Structures are given as structure tokens and as C-alpha cells.
From TrEMBL:
The keyword Transcription regulation does not apply. Residues 1-82, 88-194 form the Gnk2-homologous domain. It comes from the Eukaryota. Keywords: Membrane, Repeat, Signal, Transmembrane, Transmembrane helix. InterPro entries: GNK2, GNK2_sf. The keyword Ubl conjugation does not apply. It comes from Cuscuta campestris. This is Gnk2-homologous domain-containing protein. The chain crosses the membrane at residues 225-247. Pfam families: Stress-antifung.
Length: 318
């Protein structure tokens, strides 16, 4: 009932943040809070929150405290007041198992980019009181590090700074992408532009190419997954042309064999990426992509998929 109330879906002009409470206190009280990315339009924000609400109530039906992180939003509820209160009790980390070829230099510039990002968030971010900011730092002449950070807008600047500091502590592996999530804040970096809104974006900082390291560290995981990398526009055009040629060749082969080129393949359609929770559960083999658990929480691996399709983690506190 709490998450179905109008208060729970009340958002600001961009649909970034909302909270609600019910009950008169004590054991009967309930509190809920959601936050969407500062680059997410309101209609996508509310759709994400609606999905999060349904899934968290399905998977945590009797728990008094629960958190869910999605690619576009996060949602949490508790039997204790949560608005305006820093919470770093749960820390989930997801990183790409592919390491950068120059790990030491790369992580140095990741640290610089995250430090600049933290400074922007400490002052409230680039979007007024939203506590949302992005940063672009040129690693070398060919690669740019894209970082994003956000705190729940109800936090003070000091609490936001403390939460971001905690989130950065988990980003130690030289992975080409990582996400660090806590109930009160979130940090992410990638080697490709993954955010949509340029409102809070800072221009890419020009930095000299870092010196090559004395040695190359080994991969932090033996697990290998397909990673979609950002490539130069020329390579993208050539790749597209190659795909078109391949599709035409296969269509001609199918026509020679009496197969219609428009025949359905196992009912698969590329018209929509709006997967329901059951489908995501089946695709991920019941979320079996957990690599392990360290001092900073669960560590995940993931494939690059569109942000609107990506579900991360649901945590139910007993």
C-alpha cells in the first residue's frame, strides 16, 4: 500500500526523487524512498520505479528492510526513518572482468576522474540540488574515462561526500568499467559515454598520456564475458557495412534453400528491450553472475545491454 500511494510516485520536474511514509510510528510505521538518475526523463523514471516496486514486493514480501538497484532507478523501504539519513550499510560492487592493458596508469586516472567528480558532488553536483554529476577525463589520445556519481538529494553535502568516499573505496580492480552502489549514493565509470543528459556534464579534461607501467597485472578473474567496447566512428561504419553484407548473403542462401528471409526465428523479436522480471531471471540463470563477495560487498559481472533493460541487484534484509 505504501509503494502504491501517490506520495511514493511524486517526483520533481525531472522525476528524480520521491519519498513516502505510512503508519503512526513504532512497529506499524513504514518508510519508502526512490531515486532516479539525474539524466533520466520523468516518464522513464516512473516506469522504472513501478517495476522496482513490483519486484521488491515479490521478492521481499515479509522483510522490514529492502533495497533494489536498477539501471535507471533505485528503491528502498524500511521500518525506520530513512529520509535525510546517511546509509552505507549495504555495498554492492559490479565490475567488468576485462582489465585495462595498462592497469596502473589507468587506475591512476580513474582515481583523478573520481576525485574531480567527488568535488562536484560535494558542492551539490551540476544540477542544482540534485546531487548528480558526470565527468569526462581523457586517458590518452584515443580513450576517455566517463564517470557518474549521485547521492540521494535528501542528504547534506557532508553526508554525500562521506557516501561517495565509501563508494570509491571499492573501485580497486583495474577493470574497464565498474559500478559501486550504496543505499544513499552510487558511482560508476566506463570507457564509453553511458549517460544521456549533458546538463551536469563537465568537459573532458585534457591530460598528458600516462607513462606505460613497468609491468602488466593479470586479469582479476578467469571469467570471460562478451564486452561491447566503444570504437571509432570509422570502425563502426565498416562494421555496419560488414553486417549488412553478411545479412544479405545469408538471405540469398536461405532463398536458395527455400527458406523465407522473413521467417521468424524461435519467436524472437528485436522490437523491444522491455524484459519482465521472469525473463531477466531466466536469461541470467537466476542471477548466477555473482563472482564473489569481498570486504565491500557482492561483486558481479555483467554484459553491456541498453540501460533501460538492465536490472542489477535486489537485497532483502532479514
Amino acid at each position: 500500500m505504501l509503494l502504491s500511494s501517490k506520495n511514493a510516485t511524486r517526483a520533481n520536474r525531472r522525476g528524480l526523487f520521491g519519498s513516502a511514509s505510512a503508519g503512526s510510528g513504532g512497529d506499524s510505521a513504514a518508510y519508502a524512498l526512490f531515486m532516479c538518475g539525474g539524466d533520466v526523463l520523468a516518464r522513464y523514471c516512473l516506469a522504472c520505479v513501478s517495476d522496482a516496486r513490483d519486484n521488491i514486493m515479490q521478492l521481499c514480501p515479509r522483510q522490514k528492510t529492502a533495497y533494489v538497484w536498477y539501471d535507471l532507478c533505485m528503491l528502498r523501504y524500511s521500518d525506520r526513518p530513512i529520509v535525510g539519513r546517511l546509509d552505507v550499510s549495504v555495498h554492492n560492487i559490479m565490475y567488468r572482468p576485462e582489465n585495462h592493458s595498462r592497469p596502473e596508469a589507468f587506475m591512476t586516472w580513474v582515481g583523478i576522474s573520481l576525485a574531480n567528480l567527488a568535488n562536484r558532488l560535494k558542492d551539490g553536483g551540476g544540477g542544482g540540488s540534485s546531487k548528480f554529476a558526470t565527468r569526462e577525463t581523457r586517458f590518452d589520445s584515443r580513450e576517455t574515462i566517463y564517470t557518474l556519481g549521485q547521492c540521494t538529494p535528501d542528504l547534506s553535502n557532508a553526508d554525500c561526500e562521506e557516501c561517495i568516499t565509501k563508494a570509491k573505496q571499492g573501485l580497486t580492480a583495474p577493470a574497464i568499467g565498474c559500478r559501486s552502489m550504496l543505499p544513499s549514493c552510487y558511482v560508476r565509470y566506463e570507457m564509453y559515454p553511458f549517460y544521456y543528459n549533458s546538463l551536469a556534464a563537465a568537459p573532458a579534461a585534457s591530460v598528458p598520456p600516462p607513462p606505460p607501467p613497468a609491468h602488466i597485472l593479470g586479469s582479476s578473474s578467469s571469467s570471460k564475458v562478451a564486452i561491447v567496447a566503444t570504437i571509432a566512428p570509422f570502425c563502426g561504419v565498416m562494421f555496419t557495412i560488414a553486417i549488412i553484407c553478411l545479412v544479405r548473403t545469408r538471405r540469398r542462401a536461405k532463398q536458395r534453400n527455400g527458406i523465407s528471409p522473413s521467417a521468424d526465428v524461435n519467436g524472437i523479436s528485436s522490437e523491444s528491450c522491455q524484459y519482465d522480471f521472469t525473463t531477466i531471471q531466466a536469461i541470467t540463470n537466476d542471477f548466477s553472475c555473482i563472482i564473489g563477495q569481498g570486504g565491500y560487498g557482492f561483486v558481479y559481472k555483467w554484459l553491456h545491454v541498453p540501460r533501460v533493460c538492465n536490472a542489477w541487484r535486489i537485497f532483502c534484509e532479514v
